[in-house]
Design a protein that fits this description.
The complex is a heterodimer of chains A (about 400) and B (about 375). Helix content of chain A is about 45%, strand content about 15%. Chain A has about 400 residues and is of the alpha+beta class. In chain A, the strands form 3 sheets. A 4-stranded mixed β-sheet of chain A has the order 1-4-5-8. A 4-stranded antiparallel β-sheet of chain A has the order 2-3-7-6, with no helix packed on it. Chain B has 3 domains: about 110 residues, Butyryl-Coa Dehydrogenase, subunit A, domain 1; about 110 residues, Butyryl-CoA Dehydrogenase, subunit A, domain 2 (Beta Barrel), CATH 2.40.110; about 140 residues, Butyryl-CoA Dehydrogenase, subunit A, domain 3 (Up-down Bundle), CATH 1.20.140. The chains are: A alpha+beta (about 400), B alpha+beta (about 375).
Chain lengths: ~400, ~375
């Protein structure tokens, strides 16, 4: 047992860190660190820079531009990315749809989609959730009816993140209405510019509109856009959901936020001293740090176990990373809001801005994103399989209930 | 970065687990040992010696195995799982660390081989009634007798394993006021030396302890551990080693208690179904699992940090470890009793034994609140 990083791993960390700090513009990184909103251009610029370096799709097979990094290297990469406020490669492209197409797609589909997905020349969005299908995803109702060489798609998706930027959508649709729930679903992809696709942004409690409703009204999709076998889309969905296990705890992001809270708290007055000298606040911060350290070690343990995992099946215990990671992210964003105190109260929003909170702040600039971030982060225990679903998974797969 | 055990470590883990599981298979073995004169099995202590468990942290030239924190963690975890009563923690971990880290070559050469061989038990007589969790708070005095020796006066309380130990590692003050970190000294004192009075008693967790009165106890210069007046760092590191071990023991206990709870939920039937089919109970046992795993992670972290040369980093890490252990142990213990219902309340069932030991572990050498406060005062874990 050697719980320290090897010299090679430390050198790798150094290489990654210095690349992030020199090649990714500070103007972009400081937005992430300060909780301000990133534009589409910020995300595209970053991914293109990473792509040039060969790192945007580090998790893909070498043949399609991957790196063959060890799990520990991948962890270090993510941690440095989060700690330095580097916007991650677009998850819909690189960790969701990309791996599905690599696993289930035809050679022609791989050649057509993967390169532009890696470079973010195409922005993808995810069409899974529907108004009536949240945690019970397999109850989805959007239909795709085969007519010659096409499917005709009708229905509605919701919570479609950043659909306003998207060029393409990957979608779960019902192709066999008579089959049992999971068995009649297919995974298809099509352009967001297809006739019959309509988007409506949904304003969230943080004031922004990062999610959308997407309506399909007789959308014509060529049969060649089916990924994997017809009616077997649930296999793709399960594969996709099991894929993003590390990094979802976002330990690096929470660490960066805690460090920022401690720095800012030294400047916020409280009871004749600084807020950092207020034992009640300082102990809450310290407790978050303890839990974060424990989670970091847990993540390392699961990661190390992953090397011995040849089955390709996700270790269900990694649901714990989502569970605990989301709780800590929420604790930390809550602390940030408590830190801002009354300065968190003003609400600045530009209603014309689709995504939101880009309006000039009212009052202290550092405090302006505190409440919106707190509100926004209530989502992390809901999306990606709610924490209750994660508990169901752990109860069944780990505890054997 | 790897969490794999070496072949020897795996063998050690398997052997300790097998032996202690066999010797403590029945709850009534434990309850009857608790009532025996020493409160533990001398025969099992011999077996520990034969397996080399008592030699683990000591240098080879002192009869030891020259092993480290990972090995004592494996022992602690197995002992926590089996709920052993033998005084491994007081002898090998606490007093053993004080000697290992502070004593002269001559003292180590004289004493440690006997500890490793299982012929000498020790206790760490440091806690005083007024000190609570303040490690520097020592009122016991050591007055120089002018011939290089000292005379000890004072009272120690809740000396773990103190009623049966052959020798005591006693802290005292040669100078400074009562809460000062300067002026402390450690002695190795025969437990039956003239002037030492011990009042032994059982503890809540089934082990034993003693209150020790020192009245005109004469010790020679050769009884001093390290430099007189400069013992605080040794005391602090001894306690840090204690925390690392307790973390492992608590993880062993929590893991077993959680397994026991899940098993119970699957077999106990009410309303015609196993109560484990109720989602509320499943979710609560998942939350227990999360607490256990977070604690396990911090037990590993303790192994990483226990020999960290930067003392500020080491100190902050060990505070963090004890915070997590205390929080997890409290949560897992309370939930385990609640999920068991009535059966969790009896001494005839092992669950209660785990719960009581886990509860006491939090109270030893600083509870979660204490260590959170200390960690906060030290600036937390991350640099701002």
């Amino acid at each position: 047992m050697d719980l320290r990083f090897s010299p090679e791993e430390n050198a790798f960390r150094q290489e990654v860190r210095s690349f992030f700090q020199t090649e990714i513009p500070l103007s972009i990184r400081s937005k992430s660190i300060e909780g301000r909103h990133l534009t589409k251009e910020d995300i595209v610029t970053t991914q293109k820079t990473l792509h040039k370096k060969g790192w945007a799709v580090y998790n893909w097979p070498k043949e399609w531009g991957g790196t063959e990094w060890t799990p520990v290297q991948q962890y270090i990469f993510l941690e440095e990315m989060q700690a330095n406020g580097v916007p991650p490669p677009l998850a819909f492209n690189t960790s969701m749809n990309g791996p599905v197409i690599i696993q289930f797609g035809t050679e022609a589909q791989k050649k057509k989609f993967l390169p532009r997905m890696a470079s973010l020349d195409d922005w993808w969005c995810q069409g899974f959730s529907e108004p009536g299908s949240g945690s019970d995803l397999a109850s989805l109702k959007t239909t795709a009816v085969r007519q010659g060489d096409h499917y005709i798609v009708n229905g509605q998706k919701t919570w479609t993140t950043l659909a306003q930027y998207a060029d393409w959508i990957f979608c779960l649709v019902r192709t066999d209405p008579n089959a049992k729930k999971q068995l009649g679903i297919s995974y298809i992809v099509f352009p967001m510019t297809s006739p019959g696709v309509t988007r409506r942004p949904i304003q969230l409690i943080d004031g922004g509109s990062e999610v959308n409703e997407v309506f399909f009204d007789d959308v014509k999709v060529p049969v060649e856009n089916l990924i994997g076998e017809e009616h077997r889309g649930w296999d793709c969905a399960k594969f996709l959901l099991g894929n993003e296990r590390f990094g979802i705890a976002r330990v690096g992001v929470s660490k960066m936020r805690v460090a920022r809270i401690k720095e800012l708290a030294k400047r916020v007055p409280s009871n004749g001293g600084s807020l950092m000298e207020d034992p009640q606040f300082a102990e809450k911060v310290a407790l978050a740090e303890v839990e974060l350290k424990a989670l970091e070690m847990t993540q390392m343990r699961f990661l190390a176990a992953e090397r011995g995992n040849k089955s390709g099946k996700p270790n269900p215990a990694t649901s714990m990373l989502k569970l605990k990671g989301s709780e800590i992210q929420q604790t930390v964003t809550e602390l940030l809001m408590e830190l801002a105190g009354p300065l968190a109260i003003p609400y600045a929003n530009d209603e014309d801005d689709m995504i939101g909170h880009n309006a000039p702040p009212i009052g202290a600039e550092w405090a302006a994103p505190a409440a919106p971030t707190y509100f926004n982060y209530r989502k992390v225990s809901i999306y990606g399989g709610s924490n209750e679903i994660q508990r169901n998974i752990l109860a069944k797969a780990v505890l054997g209930f | 970065m790897d969490f794999d055990l070496s072949e020897e470590q795996q063998l050690l883990k398997d052997n300790v687990e097998r032996l202690t599981a066999a010797r403590y298979a029945e709850v009534k073995t434990r309850t009857s040992l608790m009532k025996s004169p020493k409160g533990y099995s001398e025969a099992l202590w011999k077996e520990f010696a034969e397996m080399g468990l008592l030699a683990i942290p000591f240098a080879e030239e002192h009869g030891g195995m020259g092993q480290g924190a990972v090995e004592t963690m494996l022992v602690g975890e197995a002992f926590g799982r089996a709920q052993v009563l033998e005084p491994y923690f007081p002898t090998v971990i606490l007093a053993g660390s004080a000697l290992r880290l502070g004593a002269s070559e001559a003292m180590k050469a004289a004493v440690l081989p006997e500890v490793a061989a299982g012929t000498l038990t020790l206790a760490f007589a440091h806690q005083e009634p007024e000190a609570r969790f303040d490690l520097a708070n020592v009122a016991t005095t050591a007055k120089a007798d002018g011939k290089g020796g000292y005379v000890l006066e004072g009272a120690k309380c809740v000396v773990l394993g103190g009623d049966s130990a052959d020798k005591l590692v006693v802290s005292a003050r040669v100078s400074g006021d009562r809460k000062s970190k300067d002026g402390l000294v450690l002695f190795l004192v025969d437990a039956d030396a003239a002037g030492v009075t011990r009042k032994g008693y059982p503890t809540q967790d089934g082990t034993r302890a003693a209150d020790v009165t020192l009245s005109g106890v004469k010790v020679g210069a050769d009884a001093v551990i390290g430099d007189a007046g400069k013992a605080y760092p040794v005391i602090e590191r001894t306690v840090q080693n204690g925390i690392a071990y307790l973390a492992a023991e608590a993880v062993g206990g929590m893991t077993a208690l959680h397994e026991l709870t899940v098993e119970y939920l699957k077999t106990r039937k009410q309303f015609g179904v196993p109560i484990g089919s109720f989602q509320v109970l499943q979710h609560r046992s998942v939350d227990m699992f999360v607490s256990v795993e977070q604690a396990r992670s911090m037990a590993y972290y303790a192994c990483v940090m226990i020999d960290e040369p930067d003392e500020s980093e080491r100190r902050r890490a060990m505070h963090a470890v004890k915070v997590q252990i205390g929080k997890s142990a409290r949560h897992v213990g309370q939930e385990a009793i609640q999920l068991h219902g009535g059966i969790g309340m009896t001494m005839e069932y092992k669950g209660g034994h785990y719960f009581k030991r886990l509860t006491m572990i939090d109270l030893m050498f600083g509870n979660a609140d204490h260590h959170l406060r200390e960690l906060t005062k030290a600036g937390g874990l991350l640099a701002a």
